Amino acid sequence: MTETVTAETPTTGTPITLTARAAKQVARILESEDSGTMLRVAVQGGGCSGFQYGFTLDDLRNDDDLALERDGVTVLIDAVSAEYLAGSEIDYVDDLIGSAFRINNPNATASCGCGTSFSI
Fold first, then answer.
1. Residue among 87, 85, 73, 58 at smallest CA distance from 22
2. Is residue 1's pLDDT more than 50?
3. pLDDT tens sequence across 68-80
4. Which of 26, 50, 102, 108 is most buried (most C-beta within 10 Å)?
């Protein structure tokens, strides 16, 4: 089993990857949800650094969504967010300070201490 699954952004062809750890956590979250529910990752304005990552559950897949499918789960990213996330890795970490999805975004020039907001 490979560590990541990759989908390329439509306009740049730059990949966004989903790790096995992240897919496993998505599966845990979706266990109690209706069939067909997916995790949506979005970039939104706000946060202390200008942009922040948003994570929601969604049962609607839009035509222009980028879909990362791995181990029976689907992560959706809207077309605008996909451009901000080009080249990123979506991971899940569980360490001493807590557990959370972590986005390793090469486009971010700065981020806040908590890691949930960034600037480009």
1. 73
2. no
3. 999 999 999 999 9
4. 26
Higher pLDDT, 33 or 116: 33
Instruction: Dump pLDDT digits (tens) for 33-62.
Output: 999 999 999 998 876 667 888 999 999 999
Residue with tokens 């979706």: 30
Distance CA 46, CA 61 (A): 25
d(CA 77, CA 18): 12
Q: DSSP assignment of 25-57, as one string? A: HHHHHHTTSPTT-EEEEEEEE-STTSEEEEEEE
Domains of the chain: 4-119 (2.60.300.12)
Quick check: 103 and 120 in contact, CB under 8 A? no
Residues 21/42, Cβ–Cβ less than 8 Å: no
